[in-house]
């Protein structure tokens, strides 16, 4: 009954089929029995909140934080029972924290909504009511016929109906989906390809039946039924008929397609992970510390309650003459009274939990994130793009990264290939100014003319210009009608009007190179391919195309030459061509290929084979039989290919350079020196990926490369993993690299995760190729959930990288050429991979040390503040009297101590940014959350209790005192990089405390019910002994910490501290350890005599030596007027440092 009601209300579909039926142009059956299926709309949603769920969802997320939930409970307790302090002391700070955090998170989500609206509001054209209508992308429905023009991206997943080509084909690039820049050809069925006008499409009656949405980019199963003249024609549909959202139309004027998957059901969206709330390691540590402090709070409250009743066991203290109990108080339940007293003590001590910690951290993260966008070193002038922060919650996580997972195409490379060298018949050639010259010959040599390229050289160039799947686009809008024929360009051939589109970037680079040299591929039409050889037109008939596949690693074409002969041209990897070559300079070519590879160039070997008429008839018969076989077609084709591609005549080899982004190699090396392991995850081919890894420095030539490729079963995969593990143990090679493909990875992750992880962790670099988008996310998750729980970072530029970007602890999008999906779903966005070095080594380092000190300091100052309250109870018979006035309770964290630590957490620099970039090893000092370890936390907590005891009993013995001076004094001691803002807020907060106290206690305020502090502060500061007590207590509290820091710097300095002391400076001018703690902005030492004395005590210099105390000290600050480094903003290049600079 309930299910029926849900179906009637529309909450539960009556039947969820495994297939979906899509009526083209939404022309539904007219009978009354048809129930339309419900499909998702075409909106893309990457935001977390909506207008309706923002308040409840944000409140739930905020009250998951221990401190917020705790203060909510305290606030409710203060409302329900009589407590020593007003509910405002807890409610007002809680409201402030919740409001500021909600505004920050709401602003960040508004930015995501804005980005989504740009995509969802993009203009598109659909066929409706017999005309072409412009609408917004979000309004596309399943069944709509959509028109897409050249160079536009597909707004939905479409089944291709027709294109402007007569054969109904189109070319697309899927670089933003799978990272591949090759041009792919897609087809329409013959019955719909003729519908090239809106009126024809409006009259089309067709139904598409296909599978329900799934994430696999390469799988699509369906069929289309076209009704013509009352007859139903059924055609199968596969991946070659489906145009995916995010792909881009190339080399085709326009296409029409029917929408089958929309919005979050498109394959691109299904490869996104749900955007989850990422939490940094620092925030997790904060929650742990809060639990410990909550235990301390409960202990103090229980102890105080027990001691109160122990004290009141005596009659004279239970009911003294000045505090007689009422009859109701005498008859009240002892248990309820105990609970009430316990809650009252809980409220009294509740400030030991720092609620303002969260709001200060939120403000620090939000304001600090602007520094990334303002950093000119992260600005890319060519594209006019600056760094972008989408989520500021993870700033400090940039300083904890242990693994970097990077895409290859568009992230490490520019997607640009350039022909560099070639080998023809055992002779090396290079291109110089459009001429192919033998090695050692210059452009001005008399023999350097193209006319000397005859025989073997010309045959090699013809093979390269004909053995490919390149398509040509002519861009000549003002040509007459007759120019629509590509062959009409031959006589007036102009490279300015022709653009190549290739199945791989290598092919495009090679064809462009042969065109510059003089053998130009000018187009293909049907079965005819045409080249222009040094001005001479030649036409070849394409008889057969032997497509490239991963097993053969080569592709071939069989052509009929202009003279009537038959020739096979083939090209591929050297391991796929050389074993089948029987003639030509095989050994010399092999040597040249190795030389090219050592230069990091991508190599291909070219060969040919001439057929006699009888041989070709046999070849044609074998190929036709294999291609028409209904069973075991792939095996029969493989046999035919092997029979044809043998007895080859070796022509030569090509060497192409895949242009890397600027400073990729230096960046990867810097990350490696910082202790960060780099994994490359790409959807590209094995050979291409390995070549790029070698050229970018991810793999070294001296590295032992291990392979886990083409595994077909679990047992085979497990055995190979065991062999690799044994090799790693047995080989005496310092570094190993691992190459694994997507199919083998799926087997390894299925049942052999532990063994796979063992092999990976012993490898310095890992390369995963042929990866599907979700496989990338699985690899990242595998590392994230390993026992060591390392911090991971993923970086990519395309929609195929979104899953791993969202899975990693930190996701970074590259503002590449193919779409903005990665940028919109990332935490940070940068224009180039090289910017990653400064983002981690400088910004990550600074953010982490700043927030680590901020967290520790907050716990320290609250211990200092509330422990005297606990000690005071021993002097007031645990009567729950407060030591501080309620105004001071409220303003201590908000006004008196908040600004110094906030400014510190925004501007502190332990060392100069250039030093952090030039010495990546300094990044290791802060790994594994070292500054927030339990040992460091314990030190700050004990320090807080010690200081609280000192100034409570010191004040008790000498004079009354407050703790504001202590808190600001401690943060002043921690500051290394002093600016005018540090001085202003540190000393200004102390001055504000005195000024506020004088005004608050020196004037009678009419709106206050009681004024217990009236004239107290004025009277206190008029006494000289009070000032003496202030100075003595501050010195006693801070001195032990000063001595501890100095001794540790002398005896156990970290790498960062060593860089602070003597970076590129002679020993005589090096900054002493003590002065590094006490230098002000202009380099004056506030404790030079103490520094000199300690240096003498520890034996670092002799008494009276001039080098211990020179008149000109090193200036340890870095102002804008100083020429500390040159203006060159390169990543790892530093200009010489003057000896007088620190």
Automatic annotation (TrEMBL):
Binding site for Mg(2+): 407, 409, 797, 801
Residue ranges crossing the lipid bilayer per the database entry: 66-81, 288-311, 342-361, 937-959, 980-1008, 1014-1039
Recorded GO CC terms: early endosome; endoplasmic reticulum; Golgi apparatus; recycling endosome membrane
Domain spans labelled P-type ATPase A: 124-184
Keywords of the record: ATP-binding, Endoplasmic reticulum, Endosome, Golgi apparatus, Lipid transport, Magnesium, Membrane, Metal-binding, Nucleotide-binding, Translocase, Transmembrane, Transmembrane helix, Transport
Catalytic activity: a 1,2-diacyl-sn-glycero-3-phosphoethanolamine(out) + ATP + H2O = a 1,2-diacyl-sn-glycero-3-phosphoethanolamine(in) + ADP + phosphate + H(+); ATP + H2O + phospholipidSide 1 = ADP + phosphate + phospholipidSide 2; a 1,2-diacyl-sn-glycero-3-phospho-L-serine(out) + ATP + H2O = a 1,2-diacyl-sn-glycero-3-phospho-L-serine(in) + ADP + phosphate + H(+)
Boundaries of every P-type ATPase C-terminal domain copy: 823-1054
Protein residues bound to ATP: 407-409, 507, 548, 571, 602, 682-684, 770, 776, 800-801
Gene3D superfamilies, per the entry: Calcium-transporting ATPase, cytoplasmic domain N, Calcium-transporting ATPase, cytoplasmic transduction domain A, HAD superfamily/HAD-like
Highest taxon above the source species: Eukaryota
GO MF terms, alphabetically ordered: ATP binding; ATP hydrolysis activity; magnesium ion binding; phosphatidylserine floppase activity
Keyword Calcium appears in the UniProt entry: no
Active site, renumbered: 407
Name this polypeptide is given: Phospholipid-transporting ATPase
Origin species: Oryzias latipes (Japanese rice fish)
């Amino acid at each position: 009954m309930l299910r029926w009601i849900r179906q009637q209300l529309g909450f539960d579909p009556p039947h969820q089929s495994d297939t979906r039926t899509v009526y083209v142009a939404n022309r539904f059956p007219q009978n009354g029995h048809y129930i339309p299926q419900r499909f998702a709309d075409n909106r893309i949603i990457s935001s977390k909140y909506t207008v309706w769920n923002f308040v409840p969802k944000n409140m739930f997320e905020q009250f998951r934080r221990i401190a917020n939930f705790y203060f909510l409970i305290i606030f409710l307790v203060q409302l329900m029972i009589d407590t020593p302090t007003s509910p405002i002391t807890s409610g007002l700070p809680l409201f402030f924290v919740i409001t500021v955090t909600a505004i920050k998170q709401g602003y960040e989500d508004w930015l995501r909504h804005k980005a989504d609206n740009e995509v969802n509001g993009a203009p598109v054209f659909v066929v409706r009511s017999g005309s072409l209508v412009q609408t917004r992308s979000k309004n596309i429905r399943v069944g709509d016929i959509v028109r897409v023009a050249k160079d536009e991206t597909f707004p939905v997943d479409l089944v291709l109906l027709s294109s402007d080509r007569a054969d109904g084909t189109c070319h697309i690039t899927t670089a933003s989906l799978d990272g591949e820049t090759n041009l792919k050809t897609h087809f329409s069925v013959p019955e719909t390809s003729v519908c090239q006008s809106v009126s024809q499409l409006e009259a089309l009656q067709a139904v598409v039946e296909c599978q329900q949405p799934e994430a696999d980019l390469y799988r699509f199963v369906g069929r289309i039924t076209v009704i013509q003249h009352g007859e139903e024609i059924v055609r199968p549909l596969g991946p070659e008929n489906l145009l995916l959202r995010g792909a881009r139309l190339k080399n085709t004027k326009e296409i029409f397609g029917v929408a089958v998957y929309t919005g979050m059901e498109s394959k691109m969206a299904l490869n996104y992970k749900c955007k989850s709330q990422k939490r940094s390691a620092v925030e997790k540590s904060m929650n742990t510390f809060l639990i410990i402090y909550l235990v301390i709070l409960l202990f103090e409250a229980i102890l105080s309650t027990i001691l109160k009743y122990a004290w009141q066991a005596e009659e004279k203290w239970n009911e003294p003459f000045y505090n007689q109990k009422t009859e109701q108080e005498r008859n009240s339940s002892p248990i309820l009274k105990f609970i009430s007293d316990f809650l009252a003590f809980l409220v009294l001590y509740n400030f030991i939990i720092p609620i303002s910690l969260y709001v200060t951290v939120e403000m620090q993260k939000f304001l600090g994130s602007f520094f990334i966008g303002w950093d000119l070193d992260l600005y890319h002038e060519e594209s006019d793009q600056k760094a972008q922060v989408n989520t500021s919650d993870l700033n400090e996580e940039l300083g904890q990264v242990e693994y970097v997972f990077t895409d290859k195409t568009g992230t490490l490379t520019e997607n640009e290939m350039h022909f560099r060298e070639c080998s023809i018949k055992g002779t090396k050639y290079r291109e110089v100014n459009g001429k192919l010259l033998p090695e050692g010959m210059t452009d001005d040599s008399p023999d350097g003319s193209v006319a000397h390229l005859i025989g073997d050289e010309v045959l090699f160039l013809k093979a390269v210009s004909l053995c490919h799947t390149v398509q040509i686009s002519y861009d000549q809008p003002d040509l007459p009608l007759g120019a629509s024929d590509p062959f009409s360009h031959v006589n007036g051939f102009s490279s300015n009007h022709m653009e190549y589109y290739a199945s791989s970037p290598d092919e495009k680079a090679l064809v462009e190179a042969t065109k510059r040299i003089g053998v130009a591929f000018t187009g293909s039409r049907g079965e005819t391919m045409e080249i222009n050889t040094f001005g001479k037109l030649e036409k070849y008939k394409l008889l057969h195309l032997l497509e490239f596949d991963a097993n053969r690693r080569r592709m071939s074409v069989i052509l009929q030459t202009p003279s009537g002969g038959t020739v096979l041209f083939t090209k591929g990897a050297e391991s796929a061509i050389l074993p089948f070559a029987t003639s030509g300079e095989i050994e010399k070519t092999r040597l040249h290929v190795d030389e090219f590879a050592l230069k990091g160039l991508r190599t291909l070997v070219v060969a040919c084979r001439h057929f006699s008429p009888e041989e070709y008839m046999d070849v044609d018969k074998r190929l036709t039989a294999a291609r028409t076989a209904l069973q075991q077609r792939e095996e029969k084709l493989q046999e035919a290919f092997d029979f044809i591609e043998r007895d080859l005549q070796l022509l030569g080899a090509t060497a192409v350079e895949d242009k890397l982004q600027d400073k990729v190699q230096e960046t990867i090396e810097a990350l490696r020196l910082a202790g960060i392991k780099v994994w490359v995850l790409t959807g590209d081919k094995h050979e291409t990926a390995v070549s790029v890894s070698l050229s970018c420095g991810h793999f070294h030539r001296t590295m032992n490369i291990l392979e886990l490729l083409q595994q077909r079963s679990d047992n085979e995969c497990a055995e190979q993993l065991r062999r690799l593990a044994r090799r790693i143990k047995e080989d005496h090679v310092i570094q190993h690299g691992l190459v694994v493909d997507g199919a083998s990875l799926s087997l390894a992750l299925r049942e052999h995760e532990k063994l796979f992880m063992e092999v990976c962790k012993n490898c310095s670099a890992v390369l995963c190729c042929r990866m599907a988008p979700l496989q990338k996310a699985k690899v990242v998750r595998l590392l994230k959930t390993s026992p060591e729980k390392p911090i991971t970072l993923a970086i990519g530029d395309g929609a195929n990288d979104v899953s791993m970007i969202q899975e990693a602890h930190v996701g970074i999008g590259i503002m590449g050429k193919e779409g903005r999906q990665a940028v919109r779903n990332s935490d940070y966005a940068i224009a180039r991979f090289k910017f990653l070095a400064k983002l981690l080594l400088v910004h990550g380092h600074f953010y982490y040390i700043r927030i680590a000190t901020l967290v520790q300091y907050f716990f320290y100052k609250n211990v200092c503040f509330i422990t005297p309250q606990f000690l005071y109870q021993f002097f007031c018979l645990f009567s729950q009297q407060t030591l501080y006035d309620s105004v001071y309770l409220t303003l201590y964290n908000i006004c008196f101590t908040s600004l110094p630590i906030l400014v510190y957490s925004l501007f502190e620099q332990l060392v100069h940014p250039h030093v952090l970039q030039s010495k990546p090893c300094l990044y290791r000092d802060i790994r594994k959350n070292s500054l927030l370890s339990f040992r460091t936390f314990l030190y700050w907590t004990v320090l807080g209790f010690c200081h609280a005891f000192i100034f409570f009993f010191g004040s008790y013995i000498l004079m009354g005192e407050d703790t504001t001076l202590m808190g600001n004094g401690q943060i002043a001691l921690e500051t290394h990089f002093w600016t005018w803002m540090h001085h202003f807020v540190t000393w200004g907060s102390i001055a504000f405390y005195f000024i506020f106290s004088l005004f608050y206690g020196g004037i009678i305020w009419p709106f206050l019910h009681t004024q217990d502090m009236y004239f107290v502060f004025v009277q206190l500061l008029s006494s000289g002994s009070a000032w003496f007590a202030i100075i003595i207590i501050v010195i006693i509290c801070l001195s032990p910490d000063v001595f501890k820091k100095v001794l540790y710097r002398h005896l156990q300095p970290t790498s960062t501290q060593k860089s602070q002391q003597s970076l590129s400076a002679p020993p005589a001018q090096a900054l002493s350890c003590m002065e590094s703690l006490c230098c002000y902005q202009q380099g004056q030492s506030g404790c030079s005599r103490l520094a000199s004395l300690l240096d003498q005590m520890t034996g670092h210099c002799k008494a009276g030596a001039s080098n211990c105390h020179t008149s000109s000290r090193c200036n340890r600050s870095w102002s804008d007027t100083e020429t500390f480094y040159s203006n060159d903003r390169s990543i790892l290049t530093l200009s010489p440092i003057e000896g007088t600079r620190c």
